[in-house]
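Final report, closing paragraph on structural work. Over the funding period we assembled a curated collection of sequence-structure pairs, and we close with a single example.
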Amino acid sequence: MDAARFLIEGRVQGVFFRASTREQARRLGLAGVARNLADGRVEVIAAGEPDAIETLAGWLHHGPPQARVERVERLAWAGPVPPGFEIG
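Its predicted structure, as stored:
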């Protein structure tokens, strides 16, 4: 199982980004969490099959229709991952 941390910038809070990410991640069979950060970004930690993480990564570049993604940073993640996929 692979894991990655994503930091998404732009208009990504208040536009159902976290809930939509959870739907995508669950559909792909990923575990993890999506949460708002105080600086306006959304953090996503996802773990699962590499192909599923790549699919989610592609989706994060545009997000739900109301979002305006400006930047997605991908980082390695070796920390704990909660079971299921939750909104933090």
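The chain has two helices and five strands. The first strand starts at residue 2 and ends at 11. We thank the funder for supporting this effort.
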